[in-house]
Amino acid sequence: MVRAAVLPAVGAPLEIAEIDLPDPGPGQVRIRLAAAGVCHSDLSLTNGTMRVPVPAVLGHEGAGTVVAVGEGVTHVLPGAPVILNWAPSCGTCHACTLGEVWLCANALNGAADVYAHRASDGSDLHPGLNVAAFAEETVVAASCVLPLPEGIPLTDAALLGCAVLTGYGAIHHSARVREGETVAVFGVGGVGLATLQSARIAGATTIVAVDVSAEKEELARAAGATDYVVASENTAREIRALTGKQGVDVAVECVGRAVTIRTAWESTRRGGRTTVVGIGGKDQQVTFNALELFHWGRTLSGCVYGNSDPAKDVPVLAEHVRAGRLDLGALVTERIALDGIPGAFENMVAGKGGRALVIF
Fold first, then answer.
1. Residue 357 and which of 37, 41, 284, 328 are 20 to 30 A apart at CA?
2. Do residues 308 and 285 lie in contact, with contact meaning Cβ atoms separated by under 8 Å?
3. Which residues are paired to 299 by β-bridges?
4. Euclidean distance between CA atoms 330 and 156, whole angstroms
5. Global pTM?
6. For the segment 115-125, what is each residue's pLDDT rounded down to a tens digit?
């Protein structure tokens, strides 16, 4: 038996419970978790903004050590350090055949599986976003497991599984920031901090961080922000003032709120790019009039998982870490145990801190 954070129903509080995990079957891997990041997507699953079958063990950003492998698994062996990939591509759907693996139609099929049972009553449990990382151990499909490149601390490596892939991909794959361009990042949480570091790596000059909390300025500047703006009704005007009244070349929204998306759009120069990373609810309606769409000539795009291919991007990110360009530890503002996850959710809602990391 292992301990895990179980979501019994949408809107219900998490429960720390003992669960029974099976041995890995064909094409499966059992992993002992070293760490798991607490992501806003996990919060979105608890409140119903995103839906998966419940009861479920949440957590999708994790790293650990292989305990055992099932028949047919050859790319990792027991004892190997690995990263979890919560959105594995099937390779055969329309998006995958186009090379857009981040849009794989079958990526979350595993979330409907029964992967474990409560020890207390034998009831079925689903694996949240495929990998159930809020547990001491988990059993996942082999496609959800990526070997950890050498030279990367195992606990900090958990962040590569979501926050860093998303932030790096938003800059390098979606917005395609070029050296010398200007960037604004809305939301200084775990993904926002990764986005700021990635903008610096890309060679952006002016990098503006925007958040509702003045207390996050030090975090943002350490990640690469050259300027900091506390969100208000004047945010777009302040950003234009910092960029010769033009607006930034690229704005990345990491919050998922209509007002923030609209402000990011208004902060972008004529002909610039606005990328939306934040996951908002269906009630968050963003409106534009036809004339402004024509006049401003801006590009507005969504960004799923950083438009990344984890198998290709993780080795690139690892090289940035080894070279000192990417600081994974700087994203973490809180290291907690399993029972600290609800408190991490509360801090997230209150706009406090960066990434909370569960340490096992």
1. 284
2. no
3. 273
4. 10
5. 0.96
6. 999 999 999 99
The side-by-side arrangement of strands in the sheet containing 248-253 is: 227-230, 207-211, 183-186, 248-253, 268-276, 299-302
Residues present in the chain in total = 360
Location of structure tokens 């949440």:
58
Q: Which tokens in the block code for residue 48?
A: 């119903």
The CA dihedral of 347, 350, 354, 356, to the nearest 10 degrees, is: 20
- Would you state the structure tokens that stand for residue 233, as one six-digit string? 């009704």
Question: What is the C-alpha to C-alpha distance for residues 209 and 193, in angstroms, rounded to an integer?
Answer: 9
Q: Which two tokens stand for residue 179?
A: 């050296």
Burial status of residue 289 (CB atoms within 10 A of its CB: 0-12, 13-18, 19 or more)? exposed
Q: Which residues contact 166 (CB under 8 A, 6 or more apart)?
A: 191, 194, 195, 277, 303, 305, 306, 308
Cα–Cα distance for residue pair 188/196, rounded to 1 Å: 9
State residue 58's pLDDT score.
96
Q: What is the 3-state secondary structure (H, E, C) of the chain?
A: CEEEEEECCCCCCCEEEEEECCCCCCCEEEEEEEEEEECHHHHHHHHCCCCCCCCEECCCEEEEEEEEECCCCCCCCCCCEEEECCCCCCCCCHHHHCCCHHHCCCCCHHHHCCCEEECCCCCEEECCCCCCCCECEEEEEHHHEEECCCCCCHHHHHHHHCHHHHHHHHHHHHCCCCCCCCEEEECCCHHHHHHHHHHHHHCCCCEEEEECCHHHHHHHHHHCCCEEEECCCCHHHHHHHHCCCCCEEEEEECCCCHHHHHHHHHHEEEEEEEEECCCCCCCCCCCCCHHHHHHHCCEEEECCHHHCCHHHHHHHHHHHHHCCCCCCHHHEEEEECHHHHHHHHHHHHCCCCCEEEEEC
The Cα–Cα gap between 55 and 126 comes to 6
> pLDDT digit string (tens) for 327-355?
999 999 999 999 999 999 999 999 899 99
Report the alpha-carbon distance of residue 4 to residue 152 in Å, rounded: 25
Q: What is the pLDDT of residues 272-319, one digit of tens each?
A: 999 999 999 889 999 999 999 999 999 999 999 999 999 999 999 999
Neighbouring-strand partners of residue 37: 61, 357
**What is the chain's Cα-based Rg?**
20
